[in-house]
From TrEMBL:
Protein name: Serine/threonine protein kinase
Keywords for this protein: Kinase, Serine/threonine-protein kinase, Transferase
Taxonomy, superkingdom: Bacteria
Domain Aminoglycoside phosphotransferase: 26-233
Annotated organism of origin: Planococcus massiliensis
GO-annotated molecular function: protein serine/threonine kinase activity
Length: 309
C-alpha cells in the first residue's frame, strides 16, 4: 500500500504522496488542523504493538518524556496490509549537539526509565535471547568489513576479529549468569531524542525486555549513530562518565553487572555493531560514518577506559 493510503487510514487527507523523513523505515510527518503528527511503522503483530503502547503509556503516566499514541477516532495503532502503524504527536524541539548537559540529561532519562521497570516482564515485551552466534558468522562478517573498509581506503585492525571470536565463546556464560533485565526502549540514541529542553524520547518502538547492561552498552557504542548534529565518534571517556553520572542518579548497578561489563560490551558489539559494519556497504562511503566505524573499533580494543564505576 502506498503512503497516501496508509495515512488516509488514520484520517489524514493529503494531495501528494508523503515522503518518509527516515531512510530506513516509513516515517511520515503530517499536518492537520489539530496539529503536527508522525505516522510510522511499529511492532507487529498488533498484539505486540498494544503491549508496547501499554509500556509507553505507563512511562508517560509516571512522568517520563516519551511519545504515546494519539487518541483518534480511527483507532491507533492500526494494521494496514499486515503491517502495524501508529500515530504519534510530532515533538518540537532541538536536536542533540553533543553538549555535556545534553549527555547528562540523556543519562538521567534512561536511568529513570530503567528504575521504573518492574522485576518481571509485566508488559510481555520481546525477551532478548540472541546468544547463538557462530565463529563462521564472525569470520564471514569480518571479511565483509575488511572489504568495505578497503574499498574506502580504510584499514581494519585484525585484532577486531579476535575480539569478536572471543565474544562468541563468552555468549553462553552471559546467557546464564542472571544479569538483571529491564523493560526499556532499547534504541536509546541521540537521533531518537528531541530536547525541549530536556530530552524527549520520540521513538520507543524497539522496546524489549533486555539485560540492563546490554542496553547501556548499546548507548555507549551507538548513541551518536545516524545523526548529522552528533559527533562522528562514540562517547569519549569523559562523555561516558557524564552520561553515567546522570544515569546513576536513579540506578545502582549490581556487582554482577560490573563484573561482566567488558563481556557485555563485546557481546553487544557482536550483536549490533558487527552487522552495521558488514552490511552497511554504502555507509562506508560516507566519511562521517566511516570515521564513526573506525572509532568504534578503537573503542572495542580499549574497553578498559569505559568502566561502570
Amino acid at each position: 500500500m502506498n503512503a497516501k493510503n496508509i495515512v488516509k487510514n488514520f484520517g489524514f487527507e493529503v494531495e501528494e504522496e508523503p515522503i518518509s523523513i527516515y531512510p530506513f523505515s516509513p516515517v511520515y510527518r503530517l499536518e492537520s488542523s489539530d496539529g503536527e503528527f508522525i505516522v510510522k511503522k511499529t511492532r507487529s503483530p498488533i498484539q505486540k504493538a498494544h503491549r508496547l503502547m501499554a509500556f509507553t503509556n505507563t512511562l508517560y503516566n509516571q512522568g517520563i518524556n516519551v511519545v504515546i499514541p494519539e487518541k483518534i477516532s480511527t483507532g491507533n495503532p492500526l494494521v494496514i496490509d499486515d503491517t502495524t502503524y501508529v500515530v504519534y504527536p510530532f515533538i518540537k524541539g532541538e536536536s542533540y549537539k553533543g553538549q555535556d548537559i545534553e549527555i547528562k540529561e540523556a543519562g538521567k532519562l534512561l536511568g529513570r526509565i530503567h528504575s521504573l521497570s518492574s522485576a518481571e516482564n509485566e508488559f510481555q515485551l520481546d525477551v532478548y535471547d540472541v546468544f547463538d552466534f557462530t565463529e563462521d558468522e564472525v569470520k564471514e562478517s569480518f571479511i565483509k568489513i575488511v572489504e568495505n573498509a578497503t574499498l574506502n581506503n580504510s584499514v581494519i585492525d585484525p585484532e577486531l576479529e579476535m575480539r569478536l571470536l572471543r565474544a562468541v565463546r563468552q555468549q553462553k556464560v552471559l546467557e546464564k549468569v542472571g544479569l538483571p533485565s529491564v523493560a526499556t526502549p532499547h534504541d536509546f540514541k541521540a537521533n531518537n531524542l528531541i530536547y525541549v529542553p530536556n530530552p524527549y524520547l520520540i521513538d520507543p518502538d524497539n522496546a524489549g525486555w533486555i539485560p540492563r547492561i546490554f542496553d547501556l552498552a548499546l548507548v555507549l557504542f551507538l548513541f551518536h549513530n545516524e545523526l548529522a548534529t552528533a559527533p562522528d565518534q562514540p562517547f569519549t571517556k569523559k562523555q561516558w562518565e557524564i552520561f553515567l553520572e546522570g544515569y546513576k542518579e536513579n540506578v545502582t548497578l549490581t556487582e554482577n553487572e560490573i563484573h561482566y561489563w567488558t563481556q557485555a560490551l563485546e557481546h553487544v558489539f557482536l550483536d549490533d555493531v558487527m552487522w552495521l559494519m558488514s552490511e552497511g556497504k554504502e555507509d562506508w562511503k560516507n566519511p562521517v560514518q566511516r570515521n564513526l566505524f573506525s572509532r568504534l573499533i578503537q573503542l572495542l580494543l580499549n574497553l578498559e577506559e569505559y568502566s561502570l564505576t
